[in-house]
Amino acid sequence: MPGGPTGNLVPTFPQSVETQKNLYRDVKSSNNTKEISNCLWYHFKLRREEAQAMVVNDGDFLLRQSLSSVDDYVLTLRWNATVLHFKINKFVQRHDAVNSSTFFVFERAYFDSIYSLIMYHMENQIPISVLTGALIQHPITRQTP
User: Fold this and answer.
1) What Cα–Cα distance (Å) separates residue 44 from each residue in 17, 74, 141, 142?
2) With a threshold of 0.85, does the pTM exceed it?
3) Is residue 10 part of a domain?
4) Domain-embedded: residue 2
5) How far is residue 82 CA from its own chain's centroid?
6) What averages of pLDDT result for each successive group of 10 residues across the chain (145 residues)?
7) Strand, helix or coil at 93?
């Protein structure tokens, strides 16, 4: 297994309980990456240009599915007045012919779900990239019906 933290982290933010419920509703502690569809900061198949227009302030971020690479996810964020796009790297570790584990990472810390990866960086204010020092701080939520 790659080095670094693994597991599901529970979000704790200095926001009202109602705000937390709205931003992170229905998210359970499971390893299923489809959980991110319950997170309001996940915008599904949002075009790159639309995502760029939505992150206005430093620290604003959203997650979207890559339109150019099937099964890949991209974190779009604004940092130092620049919009950045980070592909979430996915690694599959084969244990044997039948069993495997999947891990997600930006640069250093590996997690068993995209949700855990995002929450780790946001909750602990760990830069997404050593080169840019970019932090994710303010989730940009999608419209809900």
Assistant:
1) 25, 10, 11, 9
2) no
3) no
4) no
5) 19
6) 42 40 41 70 93 96 91 95 96 90 91 93 94 95 80
7) strand
